[in-house]
């Protein structure tokens, strides 16, 4: 549930984190305060760092009030999500120059997919070699000429795709044309 935010914050085990495990939860809160949020001065973090203390829930509740978390201590998932959001905002604020030109991983994949989906976009249709190649293919495949070489190339692609399906190849190998 929190994997993306934990990964963004370089948490050591983003996939295996569970806020239901008490010890793991307490250690996570200490890590988050020590490494990312840093609301308290180092010397004031002692009560929060003492994760085996019976008073830890009180220290955590005080911490929640100090960072202005709108959730109660019993609402663990909401609290963790809110604290992670705060940590991500603070991390971005500390390193804004590093992140300002970044793009999401999904956006990079989308751009690459778009480029791969339409490979004809980057062709130089005015190149004489390109025109000669398209004309040679069109003549070989008996495709009608067109003023736009890119349109002819698309027609060639469609014809090749239709004739190179498994069914078309099987049918062609059976006939003796």
From TrEMBL:
Transmembrane segments: none annotated. InterPro entries: RTRAF. It comes from the Eukaryota. Belongs to the RTRAF family. This is RNA transcription, translation and transport factor protein. It comes from Heliornis fulica (sungrebe).
């Amino acid at each position: 549930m929190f994997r993306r935010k934990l990964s963004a914050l370089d948490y050591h085990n983003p996939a295996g984190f569970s806020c239901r495990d008490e010890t793991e939860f307490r250690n996570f809160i200490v890590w988050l305060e020590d490494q990312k949020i840093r609301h308290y001065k180092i010397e004031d973090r002692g009560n929060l760092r003492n994760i085996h203390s019976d008073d830890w829930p009180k220290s955590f509740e005080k911490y929640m009030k100090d960072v202005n978390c709108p959730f109660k201590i019993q609402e663990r998932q909401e609290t963790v999500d809110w604290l992670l959001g705060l940590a991500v905002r603070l991390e971005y604020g500390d390193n804004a120059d590093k992140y300002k030109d970044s793009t999401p991983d999904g956006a990079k994949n989308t751009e690459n997919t778009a480029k791969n989906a339409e490979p004809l976009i980057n062709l130089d249709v005015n190149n004489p070699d390109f025109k000669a190649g398209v004309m040679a293919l069109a003549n070989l495949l008996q495709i009608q000429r067109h003023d736009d070489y890119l349109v002819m190339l698309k027609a060639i692609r469609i014809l090749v795709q239709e004739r190179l399906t498994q069914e078309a190849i099987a049918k062609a190998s059976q006939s003796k044309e």
